[in-house]
Structure formats: structure tokens, C-alpha cells
Amino acid sequence: MILNTKKAHNKYFLVKYNPFWIVLLLLFGASCTFSKKTASVEPKQKSYQFPYDLEKPDVTFELPKILVEISGIALSPDKKEIIAIQDENGILFYIDNETGEVLRQQKFHKDGDYEDIEVVQNTIYIMKSNGSLYELNNSADTLQRTKYKVGYHKEHDMEGLCLDKKNNRLLIACKGELSKDVAYNLHKGLYAFDLDSKMLGDKPSFSISLNAIENYIKEKGSPVMKAQFEKIMQTNDGLLGFAPSAVAIHPITENIYISSSKGKALIVISQENEVVYMQKLNKKVHEQPEGMLFDSDGTLYISNEGKEGKAKIYKFRPR
Asked: What is the number of alpha carbons within 13 Å of residue 215 lying toward its C-beta?
């Protein structure tokens, strides 16, 4: 068989120099290059930076003697006042957000162990340690009170309360036993109270375990942190030593801040329930941290009972 080399050469030439094939080859090469670049420059997650110096308040409000056992704080609907409660009297205290002056008081119920407060639009919610949740609505200068019973056993010891605006619910922190379910042994955490159904979830929405605390110290902590958290990691009657006393959601990052008056500590968790930050609180500053809230710009407020002196509310602006 005789090969017509001229025709073969022409076919090769057509394939080699045909514009269609050239464009196709260029596109293929570009796609390969783009894929390699995309894979090689995939951004890495930045390490979490805690935005507050909790040893140096920007503003300190010293409170009158009647608020020595301040237990919870929330912002008024117009954001100009802090509404505070204390854990003995059924009284609302309205405090000027700029001066710290107590402007007025309002009786809402009989004396009792009231632990935290939250404001949702024009409605006030108050949590009692025994699981009674009070809804207060203004009507003709009087407070209309509705009571909901939340929690499944008295060992919950409800202490913290905050609004989860995104999900239209209240998060309630348990200082005591989180659940009778053995799966939550050595856990502390939060239940959710739905504001539409007025029902409490049957399982915790967020939890912090002894294992999560130990892993954080191992991966991001230090021997000093380990020593500081020993008391919080120790268990008493089978419970985790970290005992939530206040909870608040950061308005920008949506991270959940949970403080423990026992052991003086703060733990920050993400919406994915991951511990992203832990800090021991200086007891010379935070004598007994019981209340916490955020302003819309990220300013953090922490209230402290006056264990040996005056109760205080601190403002911490983000750095």
C-alpha cells in the first residue's frame, strides 16, 4: 500500500492549525490552570480573636444598696435604659444607660428567686430559678403577667436567659443538672423556649461538655489555663463544675457567651456548638458575675453582685 504523504501532511496541518482546535486546546489549558489555582489558594479559617479586655472596663456603674444582689440585666426597647432585677424582690429597676443612675422602680410580682431578664420588643421575660418564666406586658400603666412553667425537673436550676432573635426563641441556661438523659452527663448547656408556641424544646439546643473543655485547653490553652480551670472541670455529684449564670448572643458574630459565677469563667461557643474561646475571670474585677447583655454595636455589659461591696455593671467596648 502506497501512502499519499502529501494528503497525510495536509490532514495533520488542518488538525494542528485549525482555529477550532486551537481555541479548544487553549480553553482546556485555562480550565486546568484555574482549577489548580482555586485549589491552591483556598482560604484557611482564621483563628478566633476575642474582642474584649475583661479586666479593664471602659465604664463602671456602681449601684445602690438595694441592687447589691443584682441577678440579671437587659436593654429597654429604646436602648436608653438597662432594666435590672435582683434575686430577692419582684421589682424592675430602670437604669440610665449613660450615667448608671437608677431612674425608677416598678413592682412586677411578689418576692422570689428571680435570676435573669430579657426584653423582646415591648415584652419583658423574667426567669425564676425553679423554672417559672414570667411574661410581662404593659397595659394602661400596669404590668399584665403570664406564667409559663419550663424545665423538666427541679435540678435544672435555671439561671440565664437571652433572646435568640434569628430563631425567635429564648435560650435558657441551666446552672444545675442539664438532663436526666445519661447522654448529657458531664454537660452544661441551654434549652430553647419557642416564642410562637410558648413551648420548651425537649432536648438541649446547645451543650458544653467536660471533654470539650479539656480538648480546648489541650489544643489552644496552656498549663496555666489548665490549672485555672481545674475547679471548673472537677465534678460535684456527677455534674460539670462549670455552672452557667448568664448567657448572651453577640449581635454580629452570633457566638454565644456563657458565664459561670461559680469558678469565675466565661466560655464562648459558636452556633455549631464548638468551644471557640475560654477565659478565667479576674475575681478582683468580677466579684460575682450574674448578668450579661450586648448592645447592637457589640458593646458587652456584665453585672456583678456586690459580695463584699457595691454591685456593679461594667461596659466593655470591642477592641
From this structure: 8
CA quadruple 188, 181, 113, 149: dihedral positive or negative? positive
Query: 3-class SS at 306?
Result: coil
Q: What are phi and psi of 69, to 5 degrees?
A: -110, 45
Domains along the sequence of the chain with CATH? 59-316 (2.120.10.30)
Strand, coil or helix: what is 117?
A: strand
Q: Which amino acid is at 299?
A: T
Mean pLDDT by 10 residues, the chain (319 residues): 43 45 44 36 57 98 96 95 95 97 95 96 95 87 88 86 98 94 93 97 96 95 92 81 96 97 96 97 95 97 91 97
Query: Distance between CA atoms of 69 and 88, rounded to whole angstroms?
Result: 8
Could you tell me which of 237, 255, 238 has the C-alpha nearest to residue 247?
255
Give residue for cell 467596648.
317
Angstrom distance (rounded) from CA 109 to CA 69: 17
